Amino acid sequence: MEMTGERRIEAPRETVWRALNDPDVLRQSIPGCETVERVGDDSFQARVAVKLGPMAARFTGKVQLTNINPPASYTIGGEGNGGAMGFAKGGADVSLEELSATETLLKYVVKAQVGGKMAQLGARLIDSTAKQMADQFFDRFAALVSAPAPAVAAEGVRPSEVAALPPGTRPTPAPGTLVGDATPEERLGAATLAGAGLVEHAGGTPPGTTYDDVAGRPNIPATPAHPVPVNLMALAPTEIFGLPLTFWIGGVIWLLLLAVLFLNG
């Protein structure tokens, strides 16, 4: 069996080369692979479960790398034993061509031979299964290698300073402080001051503000209190003994009138 192909990978050639020599990446890329272990600088040992038509087997084998020319090419050779199912042996020439700083062309030429019960299934079934597994391998491999690296904050920048905000929003810094240094209480206080018109813009401070010598944070001066007029009528009761105040005022007026009439008569 012989098979050739190529695949464009959205990653630098150095990155693709390291991935081809990374046991964990290989384990995730090979269909049915259970384990891949490095047993030497240029050799690996793997265990792969394979289903070929009506047959299924678990192959264990060792892979040897030769003609190593980093990061351009190498040759893979090995043999796997599937027990009663038979064996598989062969090799592959793999080369990496740098298309650009962020794109690599991977080319391969595979030659393999199978024996035992697997050979009785016919070359057409074996070839189609091998091509399907190769496509799955390179699809997974390209997806792993091309995956974007996790975002890392710039040196000296705290996560609170690079946290994502909803579109169209801006952080409200506390007066006199950086956004990353402000506590939630300080941000709430700054927003309250801005809403009350005590600061001209976010991050400003009202006139007369002093700063703490230790923390360097602003001490917002208290708003001067203004005298409030006292309404004496608001202190008067509205009822006496369950009767409205107007009743008692009217009664007092009638008593005064009767007293005046009595004294003049």
TrEMBL record:
<keyword id="KW-0812">Transmembrane</keyword>
<feature type="transmembrane region" description="Helical">
    <location>
        <begin position="241"/>
        <end position="263"/>
    </location>
</feature>
<dbReference type="Pfam" id="PF06240">
    <property type="entry name" value="COXG"/>
</dbReference>
<keyword id="KW-1133">Transmembrane helix</keyword>
<protein>
    <submittedName>
        <fullName>Carbon monoxide dehydrogenase subunit G</fullName>
    </submittedName>
</protein>
<dbReference type="InterPro" id="IPR023393">
    <property type="entry name" value="START-like_dom_sf"/>
</dbReference>
<keyword id="KW-0472">Membrane</keyword>
<dbReference type="InterPro" id="IPR010419">
    <property type="entry name" value="CO_DH_gsu"/>
</dbReference>
